[in-house]
């Protein structure tokens, strides 16, 4: 069996046996999409994890093996059953679905005939934002239909029908947020901008249009935009060492003071966990060496983490479940459960001010 045949077998007929040897940490270290790893991990827990339905679990493994259920089929089954509250009914339906054979599209079509009809759930109100890319962000959300209908009507007011409506509606939305055209000004946290001295000299000489500066809200600004803005309102001065990072201030309080928070956000303008898009302004300040283990509230021990990643971080160094944050040369870096370092962003002030110097080390 060649390499591709082994790969195809692991995804198809041999999927259930492959899950028996599932290693989440190895997949993360090898660069597999964490979302896919989490989905496979949940499937593995169903078929091999602890349960009081031992006989039902063993039967499910046997059916999956004998009928050659692929990894995609197993994932579809678990997605389809996740809303059921009755564990006994869930196992019964799982067995019926595992008995189905055939190509994936045929399988899903027949599976929908077996699965009970579910009342559509009313979505909760929410709004999500993507990370910044090429100076843009995407957002989506769900809310009261009357409120959003009124918003759409407002955004469509006065559109030029000979042009695409989307860009015009976005401009109208921006007017509402910024207060132009009689809209309402939306307050936002004041972001912090760090400018290295060499870049500052270039920018002030009109030669720094290509310089990209990082802000603590996860966005960026070019040298030209920096000059055009009233930067006196957002510029704050801080001292950084190319190896140690931001200068320490206080150690007696568990909670960081405002200046410590500001400096930590400049070192890492995003949550330090790989793949997390949350800007530092929306993060909590994490003690790299946990407070319970004697960690001090000094800048060489503080890193911004979003609420979720702050809670799953392995605060105990001997536990290797989700990985943990460490400080490497003045900046926070995630160490995987298998010991591999991964940095979430190179847009922090240490990279901007001392990037060339640090790369030569």
Molecular structure report:
It is a single chain. The protein has 361 residues and is α+β, with helices and mostly antiparallel strands. It has helices at 3-11, 15-20, 24-29, 34-48, 54-66, 71-81, 87-98, 104-114, 145-156, 165-178, 197-204, 223-228, 258-267, 307-312, 349-360, and strands at residues 126-129, 139-142, 212-214, 220-222, 240-241, 245-246, 284-287, 302-305, 324-328, 331-335, 341-342. It has a 3-stranded antiparallel beta sheet, with no helix packed on it. It has a two-stranded antiparallel ribbon with strand order 1-2. Strand 5 and strand 6 (245-246) form a beta hairpin. Helix 5 (54-66) packs parallel to helix 7, helix 6 packs antiparallel against helix 7 and helix 9 (145-156) packs across helix 10 (165-178). It is globular and about 70 Å long.
What keywords describe this structure?
three-stranded antiparallel sheet; nucleic acid binding; two-stranded antiparallel sheet; 3 domains; about 350 residues; alpha+beta; 15 helices
Within the largest sheet, what's the order of strands? 9-10-11
Q: Tally the helices.
A: 15
Domain unit count? 3
Helix content: 40-55%
Strand content: 5-15%
User: Can you tell me the residue ranges where pLDDT is under 50 for at least 5 consecutive residues?
Assistant: 232-244, 247-252
Q: Look at the structure and give the mean pLDDT.
A: 80
How many distinct beta strands? 11
Termini distance?
45 Å
Q: How would you sum up the major sheet?
A: 3 strands, antiparallel
Which class best fits the helix and strand makeup?
alpha+beta
């Amino acid at each position: 069996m060649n390499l591709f045949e082994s790969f195809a077998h692991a995804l198809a007929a041999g999927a259930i046996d492959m899950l028996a040897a599932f290693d989440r940490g190895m997949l993360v270290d090898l660069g597999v999409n964490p979302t896919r790893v989490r989905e496979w991990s949940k499937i593995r827990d169903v078929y091999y994890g602890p349960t009081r339905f031992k006989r039902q679990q063993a039967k499910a493994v046997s059916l999956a093996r004998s009928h050659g259920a692929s990894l995609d089929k197993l994932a579809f089954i678990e997605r389809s059953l996740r809303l059921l509250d009755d564990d006994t009914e869930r196992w019964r339906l799982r067995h019926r679905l595992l008995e189905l054979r055939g190509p994936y599209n045929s399988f899903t079509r027949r599976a929908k005939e077996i699965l009970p009809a579910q009342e559509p759930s009313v979505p909760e109100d929410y709004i999500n934002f993507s990370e910044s890319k090429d100076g843009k962000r995407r957002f989506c959300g769900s809310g009261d239909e009357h409120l959003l209908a009124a918003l759409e009507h407002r955004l469509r007011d006065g559109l030029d029908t000979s042009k695409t409506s989307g860009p015009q509606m976005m401009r109208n939305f921006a007017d509402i947020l910024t207060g132009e055209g009689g809209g309402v000004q939306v307050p936002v946290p004041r972001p912090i901008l760090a400018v290295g001295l060499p870049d500052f000299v270039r920018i002030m000489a009109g030669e720094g249009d290509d310089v990209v500066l990082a802000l603590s809200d996860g966005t960026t600004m070019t040298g030209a935009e920096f000059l055009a803005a009233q930067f006196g309102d957002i510029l704050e001065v801080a001292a950084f060492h190319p190896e140690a990072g931001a200068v320490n201030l206080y150690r007696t309080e568990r909670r960081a003071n405002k200046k410590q928070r500001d400096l930590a956000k400049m070192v890492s303008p995003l949550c330090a966990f790989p793949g997390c898009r949350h800007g530092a302004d929306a993060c909590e300040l994490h003690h790299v060496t946990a407070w319970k283990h004697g960690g001090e509230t000094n800048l060489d021990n503080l890193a911004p983490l979003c609420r979720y990643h702050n809670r799953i971080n392995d605060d105990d160094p001997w536990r290797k479940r989700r990985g943990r944050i460490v400080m490497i040369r003045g900046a926070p870096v995630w160490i995987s459960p298998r010991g591999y370092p991964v940095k979430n962003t190179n847009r922090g002030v240490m990279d901007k001010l001392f990037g060339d110097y640090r790369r030569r080390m």
